[in-house]
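re: ur question from the group chat, yeah i did fold both. here u go
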Amino acid sequence: MEDKKGYTEQIEALLMADDRSEVISCKYDKKPGLESVEIVYKGGYTVRINVTANSLGAILKEVAKEVYSNGAIGTFYRGFPQDEEVPA
């Protein structure tokens, strides 16, 4: 079984070591039916990427595309969490 959480923690350490990335955290989360990686940049801008059933290599590619290129294919959220509307 792949340790996606631990692998994502290693990716986080690499991103945080690179000042150009502007990343302050990169976390893996698993809920029923959804695996995701949340990337938080300096200033609080947040991106969530769907990585459900992705291999470790595919997770790395998605994160790298998001941070260093035009964005990840599986992105399902971009914004500032404090601005999200909470349902009444």
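okk and heres the other one u asked abt
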Amino acid sequence: MCTACGQPQPAGGARCISCGAPLPEAPVPSPLGPFLSADLGGGRSLVGEGGRITYRAADAVPPLIVELIQLRTLTLESRPFFEALVLCGFAVLGFVAVGLPLKLVMFGLAALGGLLAAVCRVHALVLETSTGGRLRWPLGLARRGSERDARLLGAWSTLAGAVKARGVVVRDARGAVLTAPSSEPPEGPRA
């Protein structure tokens, strides 16, 4: 609510949308239900509810919980699937193999490794807390442009939006800061 004109305001604005007056800082309301619930596949899940984020790596592993009030920076880490390049080592065996069928298999495995490295990527969340801790939560492997890739990036987008509203610094896969909490209100027009 704007104190100058009395008009209701959307959450998170620094200035009134009607009169442009500076708005007092209000706490971000905690949602009643989860703001994120994502099944990441392979037994992994990511849930954001209330004031915390819960990550479960597998059903048999206890969940990792981070309170949003302790979260300083959230970063999406996306990189090519470099581990598949190990299969390129089969090309060396293909050169020394004795027999055409064996050579074809070796070169085929090497080509598969190069192809997987080119079309797949690995996503992970990197969380830095106010205590100086750094956590890395693997989201999983996905083929670029696939439904799984879209689902993982959609979970990232939802989480990034929720923590941005709480003043957490959010960085994308390139390391660019999507938002940084400001200690000063933005300046208005100068006369």
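fwiw on the second one: The radius of gyration is 23 Å. Residues 100-119 form the longest helix (20 residues). idk if thats what u expected
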